[in-house]
Amino acid sequence: MNNAEQGSMGLIRPVSIIGTGSYLPERILTNAEIEKMVDTTDEWIVTRSGIRERRIAREDQATSDLAAEAGRQALEAAGVAPEEVDQIIVGTITQDMGFPSTACFVQNLLKARNAHCFDLAAACSGFVYALEVGRQFVATGAVRTSLVIGAEKLSVVTDWTDRTTCVLFGDGAGAAVLRSVEGQRGILGTVMGSDGSLADLLGIPGGGSRHPASTKTLEDRMHYMKMTGKEVFKHAVRTMSDATLQVLKKCDLTFDDIKMVIPHQANIRIIQAIGDRLGLPVDKVFINVEKYGNMSSATVPVALDQAIRSGRVKPGDRVVLVAFGGGFTWGAMVLEI
Ligand code: UT7
Question: Residue whose CA is closest, atom 28 of ligand 1?
Answer without folding.
Answer: 164
